Amino acid sequence: MEINAFIQEFEASIEGLEAGSVTPETKFQELDQWDSLAVLTTIAMADAAFEVELTANEILACRTIRDLADLVEKKRKGE
Amino acid sequence: MPNFDLTGKTVLVTGATSGIGRAVCSGVLAAGARIVVTGSNQGRLAGLSTDLGVERCQALRVDLTDAGERDALVKAAPALDGIVHGAGAIELAPAAFLSEEKLRSLQSLNYEAPVLLTSALAKGRKLNAEASVVLIASVAGLVGAKGHVLYAGSKGALMAAGRALALELAPRRIRVNSLAPGMVRAGMADQAQGALGDAAMEAHEKEYPLGFGTPDDVAAASLFLLSPAARWITGTTLVCDGGFTAR
């Protein structure tokens, strides 16, 4: 999975986030748009787009978008 | 004196192997009734029967979303003085990620099953006069919460149907009430914690003046609605939420 593919899905899913506003180094939990619904949305997006099941605690343990994309990739490979 | 005794009565509890269902079973037995319990998982049902360990308990494995299995349950059930519709599920998803499949499966278990089962029991003359029907709903059906579109819709529909059922069954003094619990420390809370995270759950509990509830708290409210003490209460919703919706 390309990190850009993950970023595209992330930007398209989180309410109020504009395309091109996120980079791999973005600390997503510091975004204005990040709240409890964004956590749920990330879980639903990972399931719909990458067929990966995430928990809220796993997401919240990540710092950057790259961490999050790595977590999804690891889970996708069944690691 | 108000009468909270259920001696000699028979009560059906669906979703009996869940946290709330289990607590209701123990409470109903302690109040003196016989119980018929249903669950969808044979192993958990067998475990429940062993734990309850009494002759006054009949366990039936039933998928309540299956019309044929519901019919079989109605045929197998003795005449009932009470029902606690405890079977239910939760699905948290943001509005942009709702699927027709998830909507239908939640609606089928949370709304259609209790309504159609009550209907079939009424038609099959399995509800004794003065029976009490308790629909386990949720505060999610009363106030909005992000991510709860599907769950809220199913529980709101259940409470609305309960009021109409109450009017139709009143001539035989059969009562129908909903019970709307807030967050209870049981399986569904674990599921919510997985979807929201530990920190969000801790913050959510602060919105409860009396903190989160326990399955026994909901069982106690169910017992009241089942008992003769509630003989003049029908078509309403008893909110059981530690003050969550009071603000």
Note down, in words, how this protein is organized:
The complex is a heterodimer of chains A (79) and B (247). Chain A has a single domain (3-14, 24-76), classed as ACP-like (Non-ribosomal Peptide Synthetase Peptidyl Carrier Protein, Chain A, Orthogonal Bundle). Helices cover 54% and strands 0% of the residues of chain A. Chain A has 79 residues and is mainly alpha-helical. Chain A is globular. In chain A, 27% of the residues are buried. Chain A is built from four helices and no strands. Chain A has helices at residues 3-13, 36-50, 56-60, 65-76. Chain B is an alpha/beta fold and 247 residues long. Chain B has a single domain, classed as NAD(P)-binding Rossmann-like Domain (Rossmann fold, 3-Layer(aba) Sandwich), CATH 3.40.50.720. Chain B has a seven-stranded parallel beta sheet with strand order 3-2-1-4-5-6-7, with helices on both faces. In chain B, helix 1 links the parallel strand 1 (10-14) and strand 2 (34-39). In chain B, helix 6 crosses helix 7 (198-205). The radius of gyration of chain B is 17 Å and the shape is globular. The two termini of chain B are 34 Å apart. Classes of the chains: A mainly alpha (79), B alpha/beta (247). The interface between A and B is medium-sized, with 16 and 15 residues.
